[in-house]
Design brief:
It contains 6 helices and 2 strands, in the order ααααββαα. The longest helix has 24 residues, at about 1-25. It has a single domain (about 1-140), classed as Arc Repressor Mutant, subunit A (Orthogonal Bundle), CATH 1.10.10. Helix 2 packs across helix 4 and helix 3 (about 50-60) packs across helix 4 (about 65-75). By secondary structure, the protein is mainly alpha-helical.
């Protein structure tokens, strides 16, 4: 049991380091997009959320906070609200071209950093890591 606890602690510590690094570096030091607003853009781009109501749980924030972040993204020209074609009472969130560009730049930067970190790994090691990491994240989602 001690090995299991030590392994779990090591994974948890690594995940905290990843989260901190991603939070600090997702946009780069010269980006005008605040990290919290970028998380909104990332969720909308990833189809994790298309309304303020679905955005709040996707970000792990309450609905008033999600509304403020959306308002900030809209006023910055990164996001727009559009009437839902199926239900005109709902506002659907969409990235503007500027918002899409910000997401693309950040994703390209993240992928480049990940590729660099795995540059001396074999293709087999990279594939196995991707498989295990995906399995791990799926299991975390299942235990929520």
């Amino acid at each position: 049991m001690e090995d299991h606890d030590a392994v779990t602690a090591a994974v948890e510590a690594a995940m905290v380091r990843i989260r901190r690094r991603q939070t600090r570096g997702a946009l780069g030091a010269d980006s005008p997009v605040p990290i919290a607003v970028f998380r909104v853009l990332d969720a909308v781009a990833g189809a994790d959320a298309d309304t303020v109501g679905t955005l709040a749980p996707a970000l792990g924030v309450d609905q008033p906070r999600a509304s403020r972040l959306v308002a900030q993204a809209v006023s910055s020209g990164l996001l727009e609200r559009a009437a839902d074609q199926r239900d005109g009472r709902r506002a659907v969130l969409r990235l503007t071209p500027t918002g899409r560009d910000a997401v693309t730049v950040a994703r390209d930067g993240r992928r480049a950093a990940m590729a660099a970190a795995m540059s001396d790994w074999t293709d087999r090691e990279r594939a196995e890591f991707a498989r295990l990491l995906g399995q791990f994240v799926d299991a975390l989602d299942d235990h929520r």
